[in-house]
Structure formats: C-alpha cells, structure tokens
Amino acid sequence: MATKRHPVHLRAWWALHALGATADDVAQKLLQLGCLGFRGHDEFCPLAMYLRRKIGGLPRVRKDSFHIVGPQECELPIPCRRFVRRFDAGGFAFLQR
C-alpha cells in the first residue's frame, strides 16, 4: 500500500524533479538561481536553499531524502541524489558558500 504524501512534499518533489535529468543539470540550474550552500549541512545545502525559496519552511536534504513537514521523509529524485553526493564529496565548488 502506498504511503500518502503531504501536499508540500509533493510540490517539493516536483520542484526538485524540474531541476534536470543529471547531477550536472541540477548544479547548473542551482547556479543560475543563485542557490549556494554548505557541504554536509542538511538545512543549508544548495538543494535545501532552493526548496526554501520554492516551497518555504525549513527543508532538510540528506543524501537520499528530503523532509519539510511532519514525520515523513521523501526520496530525492535520482539526479538530485547524485548531485548531493558529488557536492558533499567536493564537487560543484561553484555552489559552495
């Protein structure tokens, strides 16, 4: 049985999905939007900053998931997962604060 997602999580997932089909696409879109952040920080990474602008709240982004409201964490789209791993490992230095 599928878990019912909070409407905010659904909006966030679609906003993340719209960033692109690859980690490089995601990075370029975040750069265009001025979403910079800190490595290894789930509330202040570039994706969390993007979600804060698009959705509001205090989103947290981890390697495979994100959380905005309630107890539920939601999976990141695959290009975003790959972006987070590369960013935290030192890639995409142009997005680091």
Explain this structure.
The chain is mainly alpha-helical and 97 residues long. It has one domain. The protein is 43% helix and 7% strand. Strand 1 and strand 2 form a beta hairpin. Helix 2 crosses helix 4 (78-88). The mean pLDDT is 90.
Protein topology:
Layout: H1 7-17, H2 23-33, H3 46-54, E1 60-61, E2 65-67, E3 74-75, H4 78-88
Antiparallel strand pairs: 1-2, 2-3
Offer a quick outline of the entry.
The chain has about 100 residues and is mainly alpha-helical.
Q: Key features?
A:
97 residues; 4 helices; globular
Query: What letter string, H or E per element, gives the SSE order?
Result: HHHEEEH
Count of individual domains: 1
Question: Tell me, what's the shape?
Answer: globular
Radius of gyration: 12 Å
Number of strands: 3
Tell me the major beta sheet. Answer: 3 strands, antiparallel
Structural class: mainly alpha
Number of helices: 4
Which strands sit side by side, in order, in the main sheet? Answer: 1-2-3
Query: Level of helix content?
Result: 40-55%
Beta-strand content estimate: 5-15%
N-C termini distance: 42 Å
